[in-house]
Specification:
Low-confidence stretches: 1-29
Number of strands: 29
Largest sheet: 8 strands, mixed
CATH class of the largest domain: Mainly Beta
Helix content: under 10%
Shape: elongated
Strand content: 25-35%
CATH topology of the largest domain: OB fold (Dihydrolipoamide Acetyltransferase, E2P)
Number of helices: 5
Distance between the termini: 36 Å
Radius of gyration: 25 Å
């Protein structure tokens, strides 16, 4: 089938859509635990099933209706909780993995990661989407020249997909990028783990996807020990779409998908990305590739101290400090309890070249609101010596407001910097307050300039 990359991602890893047909209220407020397996005899492995039809559906662009009384079983290794998989369950039985298209949103409540499910194959169809093998409910002939595997209809899902025991261990297969590139057909729809990897320099200033325009993102992972690299794709609808790409080294867990001759990794959520080691070359990405700061290296209740950053107290004696909540480290400025008649604190980014990068994004939130004390500025002539002598221009961006609620993170959106020029620009986060009236605590996190 001749299918565009855009169409592929719309089916496999689109995030949760706002319009859902045939909605129902889920019976589960949280993922189920325990349970028992149904009385369904498994008479085929996933690998056997795929081997039976692989040549027919891939080489002949065919979608086949299964007429035999066959049943498979597998453990869910990816669900739709984060929105990076859309109406597609991925299961693995130890021999292979396969995706199952279903016309149901938020299925993670019934079919969460770690739940064994049983699939009655008779009358389902099996086909491929640009060589990614998948099961579905029927053949969609909306375009007769490009038949597609349609999802199992909402009302029929329970007849074909039956839940079993929950909370089973889900352990990824340890692989290298070379393993995947050498046999990405065999590893497709399997949960894999890569170690000693990092995102390429040019991608560390990006976010996983474009959450504002809800467009998918594409970045590349590289192996520290070889020149191998592999694509990581994320949906613009994913809950983590606006989060910055890590710029350290570590491990990544993901489901391998394919698009014809291209291997693609799809993470389930950012908990699949654990990167807190020094990069392959022993340092941060080279200058000019933008800024990507999560403040994760900072120690709570200490002043922010980052290479290239400026933490300046222009009035009073308080600086921006690191804070931690639920494992998330951020930068915070507050005049609360200071007794200061006036407080002005700046947290200023390292210099960046506006010919290379031209977009800013970050998150903001507040605590104990009494005033709007946070503003964001840009200067192209700040030397680091005196914040007052630079020509600062205030940027228009979305900041948290009182109506958002305490400690609720609000994404700035993509703030364009295209109207400015210069090879050594800086963005400054300015806090104004005092110790008696204007005492709101303001937080920022995930500062990305790309």
């Amino acid at each position: 089938m001749k299918i565009s990359l855009k169409s592929l991602f719309a089916v496999i890893v689109l995030g949760a859509m706002v319009v859902v047909s045939s909605c129902r209220k889920d019976e589960f407020d949280s993922p189920p635990s325990g349970g028992q397996d149904p009385n369904i005899v498994v008479n085929m492995t996933i690998k056997q099933l795929k081997d039976l039809y692989r040549d027919t559906i891939i080489n002949n662009d065919a979608i086949v209706k299964i007429t035999k009384d066959w049943n498979i079983s597998g453990t869910v290794v990816a669900d739709d909780k984060s929105g990076n998989f859309y109406k597609t369950i991925v299961i693995d039985d130890g021999t292979a993995g396969i995706s199952i298209r279903i016309d149901r949103s938020e299925f993670w409540r019934e079919f969460p990661i770690g739940r064994r499910i049983f699939v009655r194959l008779q009358n389902l169809v099996i086909g491929d989407y640009a060589d990614l093998i998948q099961l579905g409910g029927y053949i969609d002939l909306t375009d007769p020249t490009q038949p597609e595997v349609a999802p199992i209809p909402f009302t029929l899902i329970d007849s074909y997909v039956v839940p079993g025991v929950s909370s089973l261990p889900v352990i990824p297969i340890e692989v290298t990028i070379d393993d995947l590139l050498s046999d990405f057909d065999g590893f497709q729809n399997r949960l894999v783990k890569l170690s000693d990897v990092e995102f390429k320099d040019n991608d560390t200033s990006k976010t996983y996807a474009d959450a504002v325009s809800q467009l998918s993102g594409e970045v590349f992972l590289q192996d520290c020990n070889t020149s191998d690299e592999i694509m990581v794709r994320s949906s613009g609808y994913a809950t983590f779409a606006s989060k910055p790409i890590p710029n350290n080294n570590g491990s990544l867990v993901a489901v391998l998908t394919v698009f014809t001759t291209t291997a693609q990794l799809v993470i389930r959520d950012t908990y699949d990305v654990v990167m807190n080691q020094v990069r392959c070359d022993g340092g941060p990405p080279p200058p000019g590739n933008g800024i990507n700061e999560t403040f994760s290296s900072q120690t709570t209740n200490t002043d922010i101290n980052l290479a290239g950053w400026y933490n300046i107290s222009a009035q009073g004696n308080r600086f921006w400090r690191a804070g931690v909540f639920s494992g998330d480290t951020y930068a915070q400025a507050t005049a609360f309890g200071s007794g200061l008649p006036a407080m002005e604190s700046w947290l200023i980014t390292p210099a960046f070249d506006l010919a290379t990068v031209d977009t800013l994004s970050f998150r903001s939130s507040w605590g104990f609101f009494v005033h709007n004390g946070l503003t964001v500025w840009i200067a192209t002539n700040f030397t680091g010596a005196n914040v007052a002598t630079a020509n600062w221009t205030q940027l228009t961006c979305t900041l948290a407001v009182q109506a958002d609620g305490q400690y609720t993170w609000v994404t700035s959106g993509n703030v364009p910097l295209t109207s400015f020029t210069g090879t050594a620009a800086h963005v400054g986060f300015k806090y104004l307050g005092d110790g008696t009236t204007n005492t709101t605590s303001w937080r920022i996190d995930d500062v990305v300039i790309h």
